[in-house]
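Researcher: I need the complex structure. Ligand is 4'-deoxy-4'-aminopyridoxal-5'-phosphate. Inputs:
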Amino acid sequence: MADKLKLEKSMAMYEEAQKLVPGAVAGIRRPYNFVQGEYPIYFDHGKGGRITDIDGNEYIDFLCAYGPIIIGYREEEIDHAVQEQINNKGFCFSLTQPQQNELVRKLQEVIPSCEMAALVKTGSDATTIAIRVARAYTGKTKIARCGYHGWHDWCVEVKGGIPEKFYEDTLEFHYNDLDGLETILKANRDDMAAIIVTPVGHPLAAPVQMPKPGYLEGVRALADKYGALLIFDEIRSGFRVSLGGAQQYFGVTPDLSTFGKAMANGYAIAALVGKREPMMVLADKVFLSSTFFPNTDSIVAALKTIEILQRDKILDIIKEKGDQFGIDVQKVIDESGLPVEFSGAPWMPFITFSKDETGLYKKLRTEFYTQLIRRRVFLQPYHHGYICYRHTDEDIAYTVNAIRESLNELKKLV
Ligand code: PMP
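Model: Output:
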């Protein structure tokens, strides 16, 4: 039996924050997304593949800041490049610095669908401008969507504060279901501006899904058939599944795609990339501008991150680590005989519990993630994890063993 963590400082800071910030901390970082009372709420620092909370507990981190950490925390080469830009040039101006062109040339070089790019700050910026471009280019209105695309009005799941008319033209379909998608397209055949889909399926609190053979090709063909643009939301898969994104790995090229998260190892930057013709609506018809979009701190970080990913073949190494982790975890799960599912290997590992009518899976999930965090492995019960380059073989072996021990603790519940 592993002991409960000491979290006094986290809890005290959380109590104070309740009076300062509505909900104390933002959205997905709130305690109910973990196991309340068992997980820390505030981190102090991180290095490599590890993080330390404000009570001094150190964890192997498999959430990787929800995706941006692709190499590791406090990656010195990247931080130094940013510091040099800050010290020698500055990074926030009324006009654009030359690094914009350099980064877009790099994106052109590595991403199959990238003939042109627009740099923004967040994934939500990128997906929102993607659908605006698609609507302006096609002159049509409706969007078929599949996956989480951010917090903006057209796509956010929690609808508080959003008039219905803002999202009534957004139609949801299920991943890996071509028939369901075609039903939507048929019913709206003259008005489909775009299909936006994450190339890897990652619904909340459910197993990660890889595309079935022919699925992404099928979505591509349906987009063409119904005159809609195909947008890949590569915010999670970009700079992780391969340097050119999942579109490169699976060999299906969208018209537009969005990148963010891992692009700069934690610095705030995202991009809409795509074919020249639709992208050119941004030159005159479609407005895109924001105070911080051109800032070069994160552009320099992206350039350095991509350089390191290419130079050190980081994504091949992450894939190897993730494949091995997948094999080892699956073995442990098979041995346990428990109703557990492992998905998302090699890039987005996720341990979920098979749903049952009695709701036992919820108890198992809570107990499992409690046992795991007590063993200082940081994973989220409702969201898949990520592998980063700085996870060592020892970290992975330790984690596999922690998963074995945690599953063993569940046997008393079934
Ligand atoms: N698309 C996908 C697939 C995402 O996972 C996310 C963020 N989790 C977004 C878009 C939105 O990105 P951001 O949180 O940077 O706005």
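Model: Summary of the prediction. Residues 39 and 373 are 7 Å apart (CA to CA).
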